Amino acid sequence: MTILSVNDLKVDFDTPDGTVNAVKGVSFDIRAGECLGIVGESGSGKSQSFMAAMGLMPPNGRATGGVELQGEQILNLPVSKLNRIRGADVGMIFQDPLTALTPHLKIGEQMAEVLKVHKGLSGREARAQCLDWLDRVRIPEARRRLKQYPHELSGGMRQRVMIAQAMLCEPKLLIADEPTTALDVTVQAEVLDLMDRLKDELGTAIALITHDMGVVARMCDRIKVMRLGEFVEEGEAKAIFDAPSHAYTQRLLEAMPRIDKGEANRTETGEEILTVDDMKVHFPIRVEGGLFGRTVPLKAVNGVSFGLRAGETLGIVGESGCGKSTLARAVLRLVEPTDGTVSWFGKPLNQLDKKALKNERKDLQIVFQDPLASLDPRMTIADSIAEPLKTFRPELSKSERQAEVVAMMERVGLEREKYNRYPHELSGGQNQRVGIARAMINRPKLIICDEAVSALDVSIQAQIVTLLKELQAEFGMSMLFISHDLSVVREISNRIMVLYLGRVVEMGDADTICTAPVHPYTRSLISAVPIPDPVAERERARIRLPGELPSPLDPRAALRFLPSKLAAGEEDYVPRLTEVAPGHMVAEHDALEDIMAREKKAAA
Amino acid sequence: MALYVLRRLLVAIPTIMLLVVASFLMMHVAPGGPFTSERPLPPEVLANIEAQYGLDQPLWKQLWDYFYNIVVHFDFGPSFVQKDRSVNEIIANGFPISLTYGALSFLAATLVGVSLGITAAIRHNTWIDYVAVSLGIAAQALPNFIMGPILILTFTLWLGLLPGGGWNGGQWEYLIMPVIALSTSYMGSIARITRSSMLEVMNSNFIRTARAKGLPDRAIIWRHAMKPTLLPVISYLGPVFVYVLTGSVFVDLYFSTGGLGQSYVSSALTRDYAVLLGITILYGALTVIVNLLTDLAYAWFDPKIRY
Amino acid sequence: MFARSEKTAELAADITDFTAVRGRSLFRDAMGRFVRNKAAMASVFVLGLIVLFVVFGPLIAVWDNEEIDWANMGDILRNGAPSIASGHFFGLDELGRDLYSRTIQATRTSLLVGLIGAAMALLVGTAWGVIAGFYGGRLDTAMMRVVDILLAIPLTLILILILVVAGRNFVTLFIALGAVSWLTMARIVRGQTLTLKTREFIEAARAGGVSEGQIIFRHILPNLIGVVIVYASLLVPEMILAESFISFLGLGISEPMTSLGRLIAEGAGTMAHGTIWQLAFPLFFYVTIIITMFFIGDGLRDALDPKDR
Q1: Nearest residue to A281 (alpha-carbon basis) of A330, A352, A319
Q2: A417 vs C21: CB contact, 8 Å cut-off?
Q3: N or C: which end of chain C has fewer CB within 10 A?
Q4: A172 min Cα distance to partner chain B (Å)
Q5: A430 min Cα distance to partner chain C (Å)
Q6: Are residue A571 and residue A475 in the same domain, yes or no?
Q7: Nearest CA in chain B to C39
Q8: Do C248 and B291 touch (CB under 8 A)?
Q9: A349 Cβ partners below 8 Å, 6+ apart?
Q10: How far apart are CA A164 and CA C259, in angstroms?
Q11: How many CA atoms lie within 13 A of A596 on its CB side?
Q12: H-type helices in A203-260, by residue range?
């Protein structure tokens, strides 16, 4: 049975620079109980199609064509009529669950609203239904959540609330617009499982809008690949993944790094140029208590040691709040480490004075996550690239400097005509090339990439990774590659270090970590990463650790994988790293089964 | 919460003390005083008068006595110029008047300004919006001392509807013009702040969610958009309340309402430092309290702020 | 001997070099947006007319602003009305002086007060805010504490206090206006500096070995320009308002100099006699300046506000 039928839908926006055709006539059907994936990169018009269908466009948008919901025309209906459909027959969830919930209304209040509008329920009855749905989306302590505000919940929980709210009236169709993009990978896995279960149990049709081929492979029955406002390819998920026919789809799939496969990365045997020993970075955090409040240390990095060889790439992975970015900044002394030593070619980097440190900075560079934010908006890109040159090679004349900059621009794939451009005139990928050119201009010996490709579209991401590899082959610098995306890290790294709440839980060859992880945390992390292959993805066993990623301020959280020590009352115990195989370090932990059993007992 | 209030009050005390000391010193280093008139007094008479007010004491002693009397007796001392009147009396006389029309102006500016701003935002880019915006800007360009003459000209001289000044125990005919004069320009700015804030809120993600839930416009505006809209307005209301109170300086001059502003200006011109100092401290303390109230109101509107 | 200076060589390199496309800087984008804003452009035009009037108006004045028209001062109401014939285009004031010349002089004063007051606030406030925000820590706490305390004192009262204590003259007036107006500017600039400081391009500069001082001048200040300009443009009418308020109380500029606030006060004082022009002309200029400045400030904010980008 067809739930939603879209026929030649066009969406235009009136802008000061003329009319933009965001969607150029798309048609598709969604049937009951199926999950349709709409895949595309940013600007493809995938979200706009659905927003237009539901009448949620900004005022400068116009939609033409036809949208039928269960045989009834709903496109451009007056708001009063649409309101009977929205939330009742069609539920929606959005990318960022923090800003998508009203900040000053309690969870219970926001949810009950839907029941009041569509079913006329209120009071105890409405409460009971809300509670029932919070239980069904597996929110722990549901009763308490009803009285909490959105900011008091974690990201994953907020997205569950969004789903519960969207499902309250048991809609025929759930539109999920990038529902897991802002979430950590283990949380993403749980939210996706939840949606899958709802689909099976209630027969709800799901329209899944996403840029992530891995998510599509896990969830979708059929796929529409969208590009520049049009569908370029459509069909059964398996068929498209097996034999993509359109060149764009092929490129997209090729660009997707896979965690289950990868070239065997060689091990670098050069001299160790960077040694970090027992690094600690603690931030004072104000909490309630006492007349003037008190501060507790947030242990962002809590005793991390590693070494890096010349020409080697070490991947650092972990979920949000694990301290990976802080670690990078502390190595470069962009934040001052609280304790520990950083030895750089034998020199103690963390004890150098300002002047000596400045001299070392020539060889230590960093590339940031947000390409636009990492460039001064008021400087031309050439000025940005030239800045380190001005600092470290002031003897260069203007024309020599210009020649250097142009050469580097062309090396990273920027046309020399872009010399005088400003960052806001370039795309994200081009800006990231500028960031790389700036980092590379003095031929540094170490580059830290802090989520350097995370904000980019998949195809651009692949280009940047290739560029970094080429540059490394050419100039021989070492890299610390920090990312939450394990597949990308595997592709570029020789070795991988896994962080959990400021501590190393496992470190070893990229292949070993991704194919034979030992620590329960690494195992759950790896098993949660989606693989862009519907067959392999749906057959994989997933290791689910119960509960959410705990707060770094919770002193017990550090021993989540050593509950036996917690039970013994040794809350200050520091898990030791042991070498299980040459070069493969694993933090002390209890057996996975024990941890699960204990958690289950605690929950009961 | 109670802890936070206590903490803020503890911080407020040194602020007010500093204010007292700074104003006190500033007035004492100033050349000239209340008793240096055109006809110089004989030195012995002057010395006599100064001794009477304790002005012959060393400066630190004067400051200490002043402080002591305020803290222990809540006594701001006698007026230097108005014989037989204490600063306390002068304040007790004028402050209720200033507070009455000040509070009314504050309410008027807030209620009218917020409604105007919200109406404009809801009807964004329609003629209602344009009219409201023009009204807001025009109002903002009309501060109290401009509105005063315009109002008197219109309602007293031309139409003869309202009395041109006086207080008369605060009957409404006597209140109308001071309140309008005092509130107009703030009404304008509040309307403009409210409008732009609401436009921004209506663009936010949670409003999109509310629409996606099928809520009617009424519910979206009142339940979801209102509180976040008012946040920037609230942080502007604190200063407005203080402006409105100090606006008394003008209103009293123009409408002869007899509030504190009159005493302030006349004491400034006659160098009656005792009165000047008393009123400055009073307003300073009020500002501190109003700022505290604003912050508390902010917390009520935004659950993310916890004290 | 032709000394080949390095400079010429560089210039030559610049000219003969490849043709790089000129980028559009954010500032040029903003200018484009501002020019498209009809209300703001109309306001610039009207304000320009007023400035022209202030500059060239005296050329056609028949009377000086200090001169007293003895012949007509006896009966202002009948003989002092605006007239081309008598040379008093805006009429006479209560003392028989030419209101046309006085209005021009007053408008000039008010515009100057607005500009200089805003400029003082801009300099002091920006410096204070940048230093507090950039260096942070205890210095920041101490500097902002000072601002908080000063803000806790009603500013109009401080203004009156300063003028009473220090005496009335032009310089004191500017100092007094500057002293009360930089506080909010300092707060805004500090807030902006704090957010800028955490932006990645500042970290990138630091990682690139750029010194702290250079970071402030090369990266922080240029990125503050937008906010600072917008706020300064909103300060101009505020300064004019404050000066008018002070003059209204008789504490501002002293005779024979005058300002719009003072003229309005005088006009308001005598309107009961029916000499309405004494209020109308200064009021017209005053309200026009304020309203155009509001529109220009709004236009600048829309053009420069990073939210639009």
Answers
A1: A330
A2: yes
A3: N
A4: 14
A5: 15
A6: yes
A7: B134
A8: no
A9: A331, A333, A342, A343, A357, A360
A10: 65
A11: 9
A12: 213-219, 237-242, 247-255
Q: Is the peptide bond before C256 cis (omega within 30 degrees of 0)?
A: yes
pLDDT digits (tens, 9 = 90+) for B214-235: 999 999 999 999 999 998 888 8
The values of phi and psi at residue C129, to 5°, are -65, -40
Q: What DSSP element (H or E) covers C78? A: helix C76-79
Q: Give ipTM to 2 decimals.
A: 0.82
Q: Which residues pair with A343 in a beta bridge?
A: A275, A348
Helical axes C170-198 vs C137-151, angle rounded to 10° = 140
Cβ-Cβ contacts under 8 Å between A and C: the total is 105
Which residues 4-63 of C are in CB contact (within 8 Å) with B?
none
CATH of the domain at A281: 3.40.50.300
Domain, as residue range, for A380: 373-443
Residue C172, SS3? Answer: helix
Instruction: Check CB contact under 8 Å for B301 and A104.
Output: yes
DSSP assigned state of A560? T
- Shortest CB distance from A361 goes to which of C14, C36, C207? C207
Nearest Cα to Cα of residue A477 among A364, A387, A358: A364
Counted residue by residue, chain B has a size of 307
Which is nearest to A52 in space by CA: A19, A13, A18? A13
Cβ-contact A520, A542 below 8 angstroms: no
Pairing of strands A205-210, A173-177: parallel
The residue type at C148: D
Domain boundary among A187, A222, A255: A255
| CA of B150 vs chain C CAs: smallest distance (Å) | 8
Contact between C239 and C113 (Cβ < 8 Å): yes
User: Model confidence over B90-147: pLDDT tens digits?
Assistant: 888 888 888 888 999 999 999 999 999 999 999 888 899 889 988 888 888 887 777 8
pTM: 0.82
The one-letter code for the residue type at B195 is: R
| DSSP conformation letters of B165-215 | S--GGG-HHHHHHHHHHHHHHHHHHHHHHHHHHHHHHHTSHHHHHHHHTT-
| CATH code at position C271 | 1.10.3720.10
Best CA proximity match to B117, nearest among B9, B236, B241: B236
Residue C207, C-beta contacts closer than 8 angstroms, at least 6 positions apart:
A332, A334, A361, A364, A365, A366
Q: A11 has which bridge partners?
A: A23, A63
Closest-CA residue in chain A for B202?
A: A58
Mutate to test the interface with A, among C4, C138, C203, C214 (most CBs of A within 10 A): C203
Per-residue pLDDT, A131: 92
Question: Distance between CA B292 and CA B11 in Å, rounded?
Answer: 11
Per-residue pLDDT tens digits for A62-88: 899 999 998 889 988 898 899 999 989
Residue B18 lies in a domain: no
Rounded Cα–Cα distance for residues C38 and A346 (Å)? 64
Nearest 5°: phi and psi at B189? -70, -40
Q: Does residue A126 lie in a domain region?
A: no
Same domain as A524, residue A454: yes
Q: Distance between CA atoms of B167 and B169, rounded to whole angstroms?
A: 6
Residue B16 is encoded by which pair of tokens? 């007010």
Q: Which domain holds residue B107?
A: 87-301
Cα B234 versus chain centre, distance? 15
Query: What residues have CB less than 8 Å from A74, skipping those under 6 apart?
Result: A53, A55, A67, A68, A82, A85
Residues of B in contact with A82 (CB under 8 A): 214
Mutation to test the B interface, candidates C141, C144, C157, most B Cβ within 10 Å? C157
Alpha-carbon distances, residue A540 vs A218, A522, A524, A604 (angstroms): 10, 16, 12, 28
Query: Which of A385, A416, A443 is the last residue before a domain boundary?
Result: A443
